[in-house]
Amino acid sequence: MAAVAATIALSAAACGSATETPAAAPQTTAQAAATPAAKAAAKISANTATEDQITAALRGAGVANPGHWAEEVMEYRPYDSTDTNMDRLRQKLAKYNPGADTMSKILSVLQP
Asked: Residues of the signal sequence (predicted)?
């Protein structure tokens, strides 16, 4: 009888653990780098990045038509390294009348 009770207890314990929600797995380095703060810190150089790198960064920021905007960024090189707000690029892109959201996304991934 004791053996039957022990078997039932073990079965119940095993069933209970199967329905528990597993603990969240720790973030990998790649996942941690994808946080908004990490994205903001991981800007690429508008002066030295390739067009493909700029396109990828803009795509990652959610910019519509990233290839077009990458071409425009490349066209107006070089950018003054002291222009940390990218005012010159902002001025050049403004003539294409991007929305405020698009402009913000473009500038969020670039540094001089």
From this structure: 1-17
Q: Is the pTM of this model over 0.85?
A: no
Tens digit of pLDDT at every position of the chain (112 positions): 555 454 555 455 555 444 444 455 555 444 444 555 555 568 999 999 999 999 999 999 999 999 999 999 999 999 999 999 999 999 999 999 999 999 999 999 999 9
Q: Is residue 54 part of a domain?
A: yes
| Residue 103 domain-assigned (yes or no) | yes
Question: Does some domain include residue 104?
Answer: yes
Count of the separate structural domains present in the chain:
1
Annotate the chain with DSSP letters as a single string: -HHHHHHHHHHHHHHHHHHSPPPPPPPPHHHHHTSHHHHHH--EETTTS-HHHHHHHHHHTT-SSHHHHHHHHHHT----TT-TT-HHHHHHHHTT---HHHHHHHHHTEE-
